[in-house]
Amino acid sequence: MSINWKSGITAGVLAGVIWGWLSMGLNSITGVVEFEGSFAHNFMSFTFGGAVFGILVGGLMAIGGSLIPFRNVLARAVFTSTLMWLVIRFGGTILSVMKPTRYNVLTPETMQGLFLAIVLGGVLAMLLKKNMKEAD
Amino acid sequence: MERVLERSGGIFNALYPAVVVAALAFTMIVIAYGMESVAPGVHDAFHDFRHVIGMPCH
Prior knowledge:
Chain A is mainly α. Chain A has helices at about 5-30, 40-65, 75-100, 105-135.
């Protein structure tokens, strides 16, 4: 199953915004990161940051097409979001090696981030399935 | 009329890849890595978000 650009990006924006709020809520429960910014500032940054991540995953799903090795929407979305997170995180690891004082790698944050990447795929798949049902 | 609509659809279709490329650049430079040397002031803007999603920061 392949998705087109428009549905991938529009579902990605909405999924990303929801995911940003979920990330903020999950971290409040786990307490992995102690927030430094105010609630208003974080609400804006998590909303906007989530939307950008969502656009990226939705767009990559559209680009991926037959390159993504799954047919199921959920598997495709989770694969894409997790792979994207791993690639960006790998870039962070390289930066950490180059500038260890500037880029600290923390395992609890990494595990939470990986889990959230899977969650983003799940939210995006739910929205894509909903859009497909409405289109039928 | 149909040609005009088809043409405008083509323009929008051409914009979608550009949106994804812009999102990728923004994600890496501003959100994930907070590269002050590339875009001054971006480190603080997404500091907590960066930590929560597991990206390295100080």
